[in-house]
C-alpha cells in the first residue's frame, strides 16, 4: 500500500493508504484528527473546512494521493499554532460572541472565516457584508448572526 | 410501555371553545390563569411544606451524596374554567412533567473530595445549552464556582422511564426544582459538618466559592468536608431554597461551558469517539422512501474492495464496514442491489396533497347573521427534513450476552428497549451511553440510528461505527409531515364571530415516547376532556392555543389513518405549531384588512393574554412598526403562545427583484430576503439570557427557512433531495443583517421552554410580511416549493461520488 506523506499541523505524517482515499477520512479515520467534521462528503456543507498552505480547502474533495510531501495541512486542532498562541483571534472571537450551539459546524466555520479574512487582505481590502453573505458553511442550529459578528471581531484582531 | 392504540378510522378531535358572550361585546379575560397552576406556593402546599421548602434526601456513602425526587416539579392544578383553551392551563410541559411524576426516581448530586460537585443529568444535550443552564442552577444553590460543578449526561436509566425524555422544550422546566433542592441540601449538610468542626452553629457560617468560613479565621473547603458531611444511612431532610432575589448566577448571561472544546475541535460527537474495533460502517439504501433490500448480487466483488471488512444485508439496506468511511461510500456506489418498493411507491407531492385535501374536516359553520363576511385561508405545507448537520450516527458493540451503544439520543431508555428487542437481549443487557449531539430538532427523539447500528453489529459479529450519508437523510430520514391548514373566520361590524381552523396532516410518528406519556396520563387528563383522543390529537390539543377573543374558536387536527407508517416522520423543532401558527396569523392579517385595521392594532384589540400583548407591544416599539417602507418591502408581525411562554416577532422582508434575483451561483436559492427580525420572548424565569437569545436567533433561522426555502419534494415514491444544496435551510445569504432579541421580565418563578419558541412566530411573521410586500397569498409553504432549484442526484447508486477537485477550489 502506498505511503502518503504531508505536513499536518506543523509535523510531517506518513500514512499507508491508497491514493484515492479522501483526505477527510485519512484525517478522521486513520489519524484520529476529528476536528474537521463530515456533513456531506461532496464539498457542499463545508463542515470539514481546513487549510492547505494557508488557504481554505475541503478535505472531503481531495484524494490523499494528490497531496505533496511539502503540503501543509492545518486543521482546527493546529490553528492556534499558526499564530503561536493558546487560541487564534478568530477562536477567541467565537468564544466572546458565544457562537456555538451544538458546535458541530463550528470548526469548519472558524477555518473558513480565517481564510476569508486572509483572502480579502490579499485583495487589499477588509471584509464586507457581501463577503459574509457568500460563506457557504451550513449551521443547522442557525448561529449565522453570531458568526457574522464573530468574524468581524476576529478580523479586527488578525493583524 | 403502553402499546400504541388507535381508535376510529380517522383521527379527529372536536375541541370547541365557545365564547359566545363576546359576540355581544362582552369580553372575558382568562389571562389571570396564565401561571396560576405553576407557582411554588401551590406546588409546595401540596407537599405540606412551606414556600420554597422541599424534601430532599441524603444518601448513605463515604462522601456526601444528596438526592431529590423529580416529582418535585409537579405543579398543582386548579379546576378548569370553561371557555379556556386547554393549553392555557395545562400544556405539553405539564404533561411531560406529570407523566414523569408517578414513576420518577432520584437524581443525585455528589460532593467529591476534590471540592467539585458532580451530577449526571438524565437529559440530552443537543446544542440547546442544557449542560450550561444546569450547571448554573447547581452553582447557584451550592455556592460553588461553575468550573467546580461537573454536569455530565446520564446513560439510559430504565428506572426513570419517561423522566429521561428530552423533548418539547421541557427539560429545564421539569428538572429545575429537583436540581435546586439537591444543591441546597448539599450546601446545608456541608454547613452542618463545618459547624461541628468549628464548634459553632450553621447559621453563623457563610459559603463563598466552595469555602465555608465562620468569619473568625476558620475555613474549610467543600472537599475537606465531603466525608464528614456524608451519612451512614439514608435520611430525608427538609431544605429551603433561596429566594430568586438572592440569585447571583441564575438569570445572568453566561457563555456555554463547552464552547472552548467546540472551537478548538476537542468536542467529541459520536463518530469522533474511538471505540476499539468499531470501524466505519454505512448503509446502501433503497431509491424509494422506506424501500427494503431484496438481494445483493455482487457480494464477492464488494468484499474484495479496498478496505472493506464486512457486508451484511439488514432490514434497512445493505451495510458495509470498512477501514474508512470513504471506502464505505465507494463500496455502496459499487453495490448491485435488488430492491423492494417503498411505502409510498408511485406517490408524489400532488397525490398526497390531494388525499389530504379529501380528508379535511368540515367547518362547523356557526349560526352567524346573514350579513357576516367570511375570510378564508387555505394553505399547504410541504414535507421538510428534520436532519441535523451531524448525520445520524451510532456506535454499537453487540456480543452474545451484552450490547453497548454510544449515540446522541433524547429518549435513551426507549432506544435501549428497542435495541434489546432488535438483537434479542434483555433490556438490562444493553448499555446506552448518551453522547452530545450535533443538533437534534426532533431528529434524535427516535433511536433509529442506534437500532440500526446494533442490528448491523449483530449481523457482522463486530463493533461498528455507523454513519448515515447526507443523501440518506432527506430520502430515508425523519420528515416533518406534509399538512394543509384551512381557516375560515366570519366577521361582522368589526367583530370576529367565529374562527375555525382545520389542520390535516400526514401522520406524525410519536413512537418516541411522547405517546406513551400521554396514554399513561389519560385518566388524569379526562377532566380536561382529552380522554379518547389519539396521541396526535392529544398533543395537538395540548400545544395549540390561539390567544385571541374570536368568538367560536375551533382548532382541529385530522391525521388520516391511510398515512399510518407510510412516511418516516417526526417533529422538527416543534410538532404542529409553526404551520398552525402561520395559517392562523395569515388569516388574522386578512381579517384586519377586511375590517380596515392595522395588523398590530387589530391584534392588540383581540388578544386576551396580557403577556402576549406585552411581547407584541415590545416588538412593535423596538421594530418601529408602521415605518414607511419602499414598495416591494414590508413589515410583518405575529405572535405565538406555547410552553408556558410566548413570543412576538416583527420582521422586515425585501421582495424587490434586485434582491429576489440575486445570482450567487448554481443551486443557491436566494429569493426574498428577511432583512430584520425583532423577537420579544416571555418564557418565565430565565436561567441563562445569553443561551435564550441564541435559541431565539436559531429558531428565527428555522422560521425563515420554513416559510421561504426549505422543503423536500416527493416524486414517484422517492424524495429528490440529497444534499444541503438541494434542501435549502437558511444560509448566510438569507440571513437578516439585523436580529434583536428582547427578553421580557416575567413574573413567573419557573423556567419555561425555549428551544422551539421563536420558530412558529417567525415563520408566521415572515409569511405575513411576504403577503404584505407582494400582495400575493401563497398556496404552498415554503413559497419556493413549486420550482425545483437543483438537479436531483442519482438514486442508484444512492450516494453521490466523492469529488476529487478540491485542490482547484482552495480559497
Ligand atoms: S463534508 Fe466536506 S464539505 Fe461537507
Ligand atoms: S452549531 Fe450546530 S450546526 Fe452549527
UniProtKB/TrEMBL annotation, chain A:
Q: Check the record and name the Gene3D superfamilies matching this protein.
A: 3.10.20.30, [2Fe-2S]-binding domain
Q: Which InterPro entries match?
A: 2Fe-2S-bd, 2Fe-2S-bd_dom_sf, 2Fe-2S_ferredoxin-like_sf, 2Fe-2S_ferredoxin-type, Aldehyde_Oxdr_Iron-Sulfur, Beta-grasp_dom_sf
Sorted alphabetically, which CDD domains does this protein's record hold?
A: fer2
SUPFAM superfamilies cross-referenced by the UniProt entry: 2Fe-2S ferredoxin-like, CO dehydrogenase ISP C-domain like
Q: Extract one GO molecular function annotation from the record.
A: oxidoreductase activity, acting on the aldehyde or oxo group of donors
Recorded superkingdom: Bacteria
The chain positions of domain [2Fe-2S]-binding read: 75-152
Q: Where is the 2Fe-2S ferredoxin-type domain?
A: 7-54
Q: Which residues form a coiled coil?
A: none
What protein is this chain from? Isoquinoline 1-oxidoreductase, alpha subunit
UniProtKB/TrEMBL annotation, chain B:
Q: Which domain of life is it from?
A: Bacteria
**One MF annotation (Gene Ontology) recorded for this entry:** oxidoreductase activity
An example Pfam family from this entry, by short name, is MoCoBD_1
Location of the Aldehyde oxidase/xanthine dehydrogenase a/b hammerhead domain: 264-343
What's the protein called, per UniProt? Isoquinoline 1-oxidoreductase, beta subunit
Q: Which organism is it from?
A: Nocardioides psychrotolerans
Taxonomically, what lineage is the organism?
Answer: Bacteria, Bacillati, Actinomycetota, Actinomycetes, Propionibacteriales
Amino acid at each position: 500500500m502506498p505511503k502518503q506523506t504531508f505536513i499536518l499541523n506543523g509535523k510531517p505524517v506518513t500514512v499507508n493508504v491508497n491514493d484515492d482515499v479522501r483526505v477527510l477520512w485519512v484525517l478522521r479515520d486513520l489519524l484520529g484528527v476529528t476536528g474537521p467534521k463530515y456533513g456531506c462528503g461532496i464539498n457542499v456543507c463545508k463542515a470539514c473546512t481546513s487549510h492547505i498552505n494557508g488557504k481554505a480547502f475541503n478535505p472531503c474533495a481531495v484524494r490523499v494521493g494528490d497531496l505533496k510531501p511539502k503540503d501543509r495541512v492545518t486543521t482546527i486542532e493546529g490553528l492556534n499554532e499558526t499564530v503561536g498562541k493558546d487560541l487564534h483571534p478568530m477562536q477567541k472571537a467565537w468564544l466572546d460572541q458565544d457562537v456555538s450551539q451544538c458546535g458541530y459546524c463550528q470548526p469548519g466555520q472558524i477555518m473558513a472565516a480565517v481564510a476569508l479574512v486572509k483572502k480579502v487582505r490579499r485583495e487589499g481590502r477588509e471584509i464586507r457584508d457581501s463577503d459574509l453573505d457568500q460563506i457557504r458553511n451550513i449551521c443547522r442550529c442557525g448561529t449565522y448572526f453570531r458568526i457574522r459578528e464573530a468574524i468581524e471581531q476576529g478580523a479586527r484582531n488578525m493583524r | 410501555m403502553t402499546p400504541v392504540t388507535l381508535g376510529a378510522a380517522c383521527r379527529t378531535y372536536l375541541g370547541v371553545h365557545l365564547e359566545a358572550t363576546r359576540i355581544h361585546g362582552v369580553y372575558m379575560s382568562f389571562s389571570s390563569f396564565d401561571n396560576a397552576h405553576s407557582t411554588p406556593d401551590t406546588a409546595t402546599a401540596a407537599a405540606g411544606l412551606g414556600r420554597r421548602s422541599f424534601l430532599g434526601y441524603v444518601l448513605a456513602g463515604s462522601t456526601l451524596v444528596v438526592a431529590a425526587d423529580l416529582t418535585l416539579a409537579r405543579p398543582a392544578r386548579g379546576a378548569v374554567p370553561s371557555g379556556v383553551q386547554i393549553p392555557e392551563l395545562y400544556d405539553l410541559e405539564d404533561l411531560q412533567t406529570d407523566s414523569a411524576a408517578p414513576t420518577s426516581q432520584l437524581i443525585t448530586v455528589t460532593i467529591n473530595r476534590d471540592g467539585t460537585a458532580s451530577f449526571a443529568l438524565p437529559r440530552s444535550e443537543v446544542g440547546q445549552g442544557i449542560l450550561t443552564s444546569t450547571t448554573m442552577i447547581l452553582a447557584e444553590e451550592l455556592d460553588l464556582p461553575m468550573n467546580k460543578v461537573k454536569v455530565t449526561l446520564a446513560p439510559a436509566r430504565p428506572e426513570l422511564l419517561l423522566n429521561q425524555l428530552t423533548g418539547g422544550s421541557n427539560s429545564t422546566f421539569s428538572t429545575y426544582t429537583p436540581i435546586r433542592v439537591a444543591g441546597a441540601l448539599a450546601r446545608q449538610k456541608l454547613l452542618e459538618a463545618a459547624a461541628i468542626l468549628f464548634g459553632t452553629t450553621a447559621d453563623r457560617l457563610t459559603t463563598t466559592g466552595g469555602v465555608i468560613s465562620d468569619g473568625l479565621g476558620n475555613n474549610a473547603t467543600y472537599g475537606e468536608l465531603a466525608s464528614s458531611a456524608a451519612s451512614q444511612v439514608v435520611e430525608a431532610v427538609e431544605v429551603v431554597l433561596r429566594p430568586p432575589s438572592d440569585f447571583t448566577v441564575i438569570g445572568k448571561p453566561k457563555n456555554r461551558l463547552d464552547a472552548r472544546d467546540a472551537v478548538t475541535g476537542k468536542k467529541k460527537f459520536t463518530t469522533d469517539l474511538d471505540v476499539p474495533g468499531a470501524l466505519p460502517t454505512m448503509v446502501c439504501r433503497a431509491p424509494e422512501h422506506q424501500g427494503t433490500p431484496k438481494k445483493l448480487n455482487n457480494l464477492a466483488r464488494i468484499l474484495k474492495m479496498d478496505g472493506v471488512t464486512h457486508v451484511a444485508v439488514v432490514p434497512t439496506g445493505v451495510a458495509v464496514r470498512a477501514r474508512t468511511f470513504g471506502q464505505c461510500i465507494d463500496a455502496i456506489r459499487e453495490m448491485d442491489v435488488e430492491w423492494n418498493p417503498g411505502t409510498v411507491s408511485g406517490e408524489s407531492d400532488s397525490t398526497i396533497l390531494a388525499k389530504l385535501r379529501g380528508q379535511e374536516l368540515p367547518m362547523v359553520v356557526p349560526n352567524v347573521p346573514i350579513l357576516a363576511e367570511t375570510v378564508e385561508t387555505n394553505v399547504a405545507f410541504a414535507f421538510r427534513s428534520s436532519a441535523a448537520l451531524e448525520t445520524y450516527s451510532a456506535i454499537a458493540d453487540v456480543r452474545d450476552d451484552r450490547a453497548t451503544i454510544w449515540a446522541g439520543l433524547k429518549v435513551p431508555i426507549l432506544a435501549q428497549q428497542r435495541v434489546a428487542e432488535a438483537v434479542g437481549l434483555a433490556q438490562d443487557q444493553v448499555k446506552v451511553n448518551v453522547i452530545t449531539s450535533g443538533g437534534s430538532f426532533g431528529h434524535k427523539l427516535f433511536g433509529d440510528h442506534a437500532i440500526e447500528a446494533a442490528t448491523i453489529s449483530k449481523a457482522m459479529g463486530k463493533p461498528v461505527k455507523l454513519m448515515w450519508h447526507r443523501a440518506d437523510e432527506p430520502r430515508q430520514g425523519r420528515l416533518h409531515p406534509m399538512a394543509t391548514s384551512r381557516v375560515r373566520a366570519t366577521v361582522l361590524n368589526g367583530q370576529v364571530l367565529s374562527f375555525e381552523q382545520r389542520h390535516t396532516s400526514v401522520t406524525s410518528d410519536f413512537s418516541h415516547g411522547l405517546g406513551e406519556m400521554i396514554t399513561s396520563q389519560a385518566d388524569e387528563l379526562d377532566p380536561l376532556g382529552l380522554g379518547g383522543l389519539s396521541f396526535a390529537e392529544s398533543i395537538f390539543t395540548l400545544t395549540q392555543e390561539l390567544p385571541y377573543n374570536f368568538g367560536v374558536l375551533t382548532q382541529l387536527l385530522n391525521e388520516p389513518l391511510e398515512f399510518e407508517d407510510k412516511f418516516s416522520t417526526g417533529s422538527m423543532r416543534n410538532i404542529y405549531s409553526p404551520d398552525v401558527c402561520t395559517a392562523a396569523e395569515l388569516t388574522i392579517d386578512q381579517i384586519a384588512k377586511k375590517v380596515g385595521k392595522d395588523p398590530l392594532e387589530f391584534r392588540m384589540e383581540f388578544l386576551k393574554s396580557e403577556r402576549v400583548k406585552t411581547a407584541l407591544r415590545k416588538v412593535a416599539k423596538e421594530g418601529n412598526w408602521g415605518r414607511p417602507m419602499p414598495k416591494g418591502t414590508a413589515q410583518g408581525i405575529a405572535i405565538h403562545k406555547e410552553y408556558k411562554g410566548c413570543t412576538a416577532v416583527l420582521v422586515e422582508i425585501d421582495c424587490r427583484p434586485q434582491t429576489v434575483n440575486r445570482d450567487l451561483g448554481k443551486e443557491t436559492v436566494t429569493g426574498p430576503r428577511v432583512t430584520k427580525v425583532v423577537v420579544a420572548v416571555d418564557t418565565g424565569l430565565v436561567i441563562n439570557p445569553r443561551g435564550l437569545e441564541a435559541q431565539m436567533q436559531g429558531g428565527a433561522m428555522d422560521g425563515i427557512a420554513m416559510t421561504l426555502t426549505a422543503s423536500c419534494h416527493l416524486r414517484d415514491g422517492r424524495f429528490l433531495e440529497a444534499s444541503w444544496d438541494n434542501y435549502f435551510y437558511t444560509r448566510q445569504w438569507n440571513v437578516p443583517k439585523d436580529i434583536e432579541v428582547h427578553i421580557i421580565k416575567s413574573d413567573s418563578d419557573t423556567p419555561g421552554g425555549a428551544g422551539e419558541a421563536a420558530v412558529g412566530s417567525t415563520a408566521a411573521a415572515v409569511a405575513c410580511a411576504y403577503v404584505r410586500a407582494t400582495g400575493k397569498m401563497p398556496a404552498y409553504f415554503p413559497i419556493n416549493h413549486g420550482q425545483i432549484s437543483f438537479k436531483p442526484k442519482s438514486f442508484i447508486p444512492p450516494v453521490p461520488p466523492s469529488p476529487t477537485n478540491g485542490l482547484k477550489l482552495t480559497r
